[in-house]
Specification:
Layout (H helix, E strand, L loop, with lengths): L6 H9 L5 E2 L10 H8 L4 H6 L12 H8 L11 E4 L1 H13 L5 E6 L4 H8 L3 E6 L8 H8 L5 E5 L11 H13 L3 E5 L21 E5 L12 E4 L2 H11 L8 H12 L1 H23 L15 E5 L6 H10 L2 E2 L1 E2 L8 E5 L4 H17 L1
Helix pairs in contact: 4-10, 5-6, 5-9, 11-13
This protein binds pyridoxal-5'-phosphate.
The site of pyridoxal-5'-phosphate has 13 residues, from helix 5.
């Protein structure tokens, strides 16, 4: 299979770890292991973690972890429908590469996290872009028009990276009903679901045939655990399992144990992360008011904002120019759209403020 470079990841590999102010990240600030354990406030926890066997684990994931994940979905969700993966990225990869065949058509939002379109395209499938517009977001009428091209699969991401758009419950039901009626696979990457003012709905609320993909990375601030999951009907799980046996086999045992701890204390984690998000969004609003050439919409959930910068400079060049000034943003072209950049505001508030000051100064000087 052809492999097209994942442009955003290639750019990050050259920039992310040496930049002073990282305003490109798409996750909430990471927790340290110490912070996570002290949040649990359980003196025996360290000892039970020390007892974790560092061998292979069940391919589908630790049962207790799957039970905890199933509680994020409409009750009763059978833990056997949960499949633990190495981040959401593995879940998306297994799904797209197992369900799409060369020549198939699939609907995908544009702009998007490149993986969601590229895996299918590299397999020889044909992407049908569902375009974002500032006034309508992702318009359901356009979706209905795309369905006339008889796609095999719909790949959604809600709440959405990079625009911060989230479908309403009515829109989600409509999409789910249409996919059920027309027997189209419906995949929904929901990695930001827990990082809005409340828990956003899942496509699994509207269809037992839909697949939800989740993760400990973005909304929990635990990307280093490399734990994600899919919740899917048994036939889809079976196909992904076949493919998985040739790649990663299972998730690291220690990552799963820590993910279990985090999920058992999820409301405390959500509270801290939501407070940080709100504090930072205010900083972002205040800073961007000083730069009238920058246009953006307050994201409905998640910690990324999609900024339109109205200038001739190509977004990759802009990314490097800002990087030279010590600030990292994610160029829009890496999501399939020029004239924009993605700004991640989930990090440390002091660093965000300092990075924003440099960014605003750059745009004021034109
Ligand atoms: C929409 C989306 N899905 C999946 C991923 C991968 O996340 P994970 O760390 O869970 O593999 C990302 C990471 O940026 C993302 O933005």
């Amino acid at each position: 299979m052809k492999v097209t470079p994942f442009t955003l990841e290639r750019f990050f590999s050259q920039t992310e770890f040496d930049v002073r102010y990282n305003l490109a990240t798409s996750a909430i600030q990471a927790w340290s292991l110490r912070e996570l354990l002290s949040l649990a406030n359980d003196p025996d926890l360290q000892f039970s973690l020390f007892a974790t066997r560092l061998g292979y684990t069940e391919p589908q994931g630790n049962l207790e972890l799957r039970q905890e994940i199933s509680r994020l979905y409409p009750a009763p969700t059978d833990p056997d429908l949960v499949f633990v993966t190495i981040g959401a990225i593995e879940a998306n990869y297994l799904l797209l590469s197992s369900l799409l065949e060369p020549g198939d058509r699939f609907i995908v939002q544009t702009p998007c996290y490149q993986q969601l379109s590229q895996v299918g395209v590299d397999l020889g499938a044909i992407a049908l872009p569902w375009n974002y517009s500032d006034d309508k977001g992702f318009d359901i009428q356009e979706f209905e028009a795309l369905l006339e091209q008889k796609p095999r699969l719909v790949m959604l991401n809600t709440p959405h990276n990079p625009t911060g758009f989230a479908f309403s419950p009515t829109e989600m039901k409509k999409i789910a009903d249409l996919c059920l009626e027309q027997e189209i696979y419906l995949l929904s990457d929901e990695v930001y679901r827990e990082l809005g003012e409340t828990l956003s709905p899942s496509m699994r609320d509207y269809s037992s045939q839909a697949v939800s993909v989740g993760s400990m990375s973005k909304a929990y601030g635990l990307a280093g655990l490399r734990v994600g999951w899919m919740v899917a009907p048994p036939a889809i799980l079976a196909r992904c399992t076949l493919k998985r046996d040739y790649t990663t086999l299972c998730c690291p045992s220690i990552g799963q144990q820590l993910a279990l701890t985090a999920l058992r204390h999820r409301t405390k984690i959500w509270d801290r992360n939501r407070q940080l998000r709100l504090r930072n969004i205010t900083l972002l609003e205040e800073a961007l008011m000083e730069a009238p050439t920058l246009r953006w919409k307050k994201p409905e959930a998640g910690v990324v904002a999609w900024v339109d910068y109205t200038s001739e400079t190509l977004s990759e060049q802009l990314g490097w120019e800002l990087h030279n000034r010590g600030v990292l943003v994610a160029p829009g072209i890496f999501f399939g759209q020029e004239g924009h950049f993605r700004l991640g505001f989930g990090g440390n508030s002091g660093e965000l403020k300092a990075g924003l000051a440099i960014l605003v100064d750059y745009f004021k000087k034109g």
